[in-house]
Automatic annotation (TrEMBL):
Lineage start: Bacteria, Pseudomonadati, Pseudomonadota, Alphaproteobacteria, Acetobacterales
Organism of origin: Gluconobacter frateurii NRIC 0228
Pfam families tied to this protein: HTH_IclR (PF09339), IclR_C (PF01614)
Ranges of residues in domain HTH iclR-type: 13-73
Record keywords, A-Z: DNA-binding, Transcription, Transcription regulation
Protein name, as recorded: IclR family transcriptional regulator
IclR-ED domain ranges (all copies): 74-251
SMART domains: HTH_ICLR
Length: 251
């Protein structure tokens, strides 16, 4: 996987970068925050954070009510250009809808972004995926989710080590995940329970670009009782792998 070349600091606007950090502070369910909350998230002073928040408010990207702030619908426009330029709508959408219909399951696509996966498309077939709690633009861990592990297993070892470090894994967790990723590489898919309290399971299959590098993963979420191991291996996985093959040119 090619690493981006470093950009000279003289060509970087640190203020703009800090503004984007403020927007990203609203990830992970943080939908309604005070300036102090945001400052803690991004690691800047309250005074600096307040200026950034007020600037974003003046531009219409956040809205303040009683000193609490949340994103507005205008923030969606920031990702619209990406979705259009990568053919997410007119190429990816029809493929996922056709496979979702054939399979009878909701199929989702997440793309690799640095040390996480970003959820970029979902074709709903039932309410299961909504129960999993993800929406377009949500980020997912490469270390702890089926979608992320399906990607991580096919990354170069040096990048995997970066994932391990940023995920702050213990030595035991590191060793366990290393063994798990080796298994995923061999079998071609990741399978993981959503949580100990849930009956839901997630299945992730890697998606590769034209250069043969892992670019993302397709996934479905389903009740554990719906499929046995044979059905997962011989029905679900081939469907997702075929779907991933169709999407190569868009990744």
């Amino acid at each position: 996987m090619d690493q981006p070349l470093p950009i000279p600091e003289t060509e970087i606007s640190l203020t703009f970068a800090k503004g984007l950090e403020v927007l990203r502070a609203f990830d992970g369910g943080q939908t309604d925050m005070t300036v102090a909350d945001i400052a803690r998230q991004v690691g800047h002073t309250r005074a600096a954070t307040r200026r950034l928040v007020r600037t974003l408010e003046s531009l219409g990207y956040v809205k303040g009510v009683e000193q609490r702030y949340r994103l507005t619908a205008r923030a969606l426009k920031l990702g619209l250009g990406f979705l259009q330029s990568r053919s997410i709508g007119h190429l990816v959408g029809p493929v996922l809808r056709a496979e979702s219909l054939a399979l009878g399951e909701s199929i989702s696509l997440a793309l690799l972004d640095a040390m996480e996966a970003i959820y970029v498309f979902h074709n709903p077939a039932d309410k299961v995926a909504e129960m999993a709690g993800h929406t377009i633009g949500s980020s997912m861990s490469l270390a702890t989710t089926a979608t992320g592990q399906a990607i991580c297993a096919f990354l170069p070892s040096a990048v995997q080590e970066q994932v391990f470090r940023t995920s702050k894994l213990s030595e035991t967790e590191h060793d366990e995940l290393t063994r798990h990723l080796t298994k995923i590489t061999a079998q071609g898919f990741a399978l993981k329970d959503i949580s100990p309290q849930s009956d839901l399971r997630a299945l992730g299959v890697p998606a590769f670009n034209l250069d043969g590098e892992v670019a993302g993963a397709l996934s479905i979420v389903f009740p554990a009782s719906r499929y046995d191991d044979a059905q997962i291996r011989h029905s679900l996985v081939p469907h997702l792998q075929r779907c991933a093959t169709y999407l190569v040119s868009a990744l």
